[in-house]
Amino acid sequence: MRPWSTSAVRDLRCLLNEWDPVGVADAVPDEYDCMLAPLLGRLHGGAGQEEIAAFLRYELEDHFGLDALGVRCDAVAARVTAWWACAGPGGGAADA
């Protein structure tokens, strides 16, 4: 069983689509779904902003083939970890 709820997946998808480093979220809303489970797993495991930013940079470069410079991985990691702090296991995003 996943340690996160459907609303957590939806909320994280929304954050990634707002970031939209590839520039296709309007046409392909599931473009970043490949990052959802790994991100939620890391967050559930206690990953902080630096680890999340490193994961985002790696995914952009390795999976999407993009240069991660200039796409605000640190800022997005800050948003993701702040969201998780509010909505994570203690805030209702995780299943009991």
Describe this entry's structure for a reader.
Helices cover 55% and strands 0% of the residues. The protein has 96 residues and is mainly alpha-helical. The protein has one domain (6-19, 34-87). The longest helix is centred in the middle third of the chain and has 15 residues, at 49-63. This is DUF1871 domain-containing protein. It comes from Streptomyces cyaneogriseus subsp. noncyanogenus.
Count the helices. How many?
Answer: 4
- The gross shape turns out to be globular
Mean pLDDT: 88
- Helix percent band: 55-70%
Gyration radius from CA atoms, angstroms = 13 Å
How far apart the termini lie comes to 11 Å
Count all strands and give the number: 0
Structural class: mainly alpha
The tally of structural domains comes to 1
Largest sheet data:
none
Write a concise synopsis of the structure shown.
The chain is 55% helix and 0% strand. With 96 residues, it is an all-alpha fold. It has one domain (6-19, 34-87).
Topology summary:
Blueprint: H1 6-19, H2 36-44, H3 49-63, H4 73-87
Helix pairs in contact: 1-4, 3-4
Please name the defining characteristics of this protein.
single chain; 96 residues; disordered C terminus; 4 helices; mainly alpha; 55% helix
